[in-house]
Write a structure and sequence with these properties.
mainly alpha; Tetracycline Repressor, domain 2; about 80% helix; about 200 residues; Arc Repressor Mutant, subunit A; 2 domains
């Protein structure tokens, strides 16, 4: 899908501020510095993002959306579902490793954003909805290879949440810098799934 000029500009601004936030932290990165890095005026910056908080939250939303979109592409392949799940795990771990420094900063400084965010409740609810949507999509994809007794007892959303939760564990290990063996982590997640919910 072709992006509009506005979307391309928003992406450009997000790329610039991701670099600044990662190097300098949220608190030390001002809208002046972001405008300077983007080589645009401050009023132009405010046309795209009304605040530093909106930039920070926009980066986190973009991170989630990128994983979700790449995940959908993987799940849309005509391949063995076990292989697709392994590819989905690979994608998630690789992307978390690629963005590790940014994610560390985000976790370290998110409390500053929460204090500045006027609509934090709305943001939290949006995050919960996104998490549920992803879990439903994963569950729907996996249901053909889930043990019948698991399907009888649990919803597809809960089944998808099982994989999401395992990947969140890999996320925290990645943040700590402890995912040194990507293949071993994938093997562990697959073993847990096969011994737990998969047929």
């Amino acid at each position: 899908m072709t992006k509009s000029k506005e979307d391309m500009m928003r992406d450009f601004i997000l790329n610039c501020c991701e670099s600044l936030f990662t190097k300098q932290g949220y608190k030390s990165t001002s809208m002046d510095k972001i405008a300077e890095k983007c080589q645009i005026s401050k009023p132009t910056l405010y046309n795209y993002f009304p605040s530093k908080v909106s930039l920070f939250l926009g980066l986190f939303a973009r991170f989630q959306n990128e994983i979700a979109e790449k995940g959908k592409l993987i799940m849309g392949q005509k391949k063995d579902k076990y292989q697709v799940i392994e590819e989905f795990i690979d994608l998630s771990i690789e992307y978390m490793q690629e963005k590790r420094d940014f994610l560390r900063m985000m976790l370290r400084e998110h409390h500053l954003v929460v204090n500045e965010c006027e609509d934090i409740e709305e943001h939290i609810n949006a995050e919960i909805r996104k998490r549920q949507e992803t879990a439903r999509e994963l569950g729907e994809f996996m249901k053909d290879i889930v043990r019948p007794e698991i399907l009888e007892e649990f919803s597809t959303e809960m089944i998808g949440m099982a994989l999401s939760t395992l990947l969140e564990g890999a996320f925290w290990d990645s943040i700590k810098g402890e995912v040194n063996d990507h293949e071993k982590m994938k093997k562990l997640i697959m073993r847990l799934l096969k011994n737990g919910i998969l047929d």
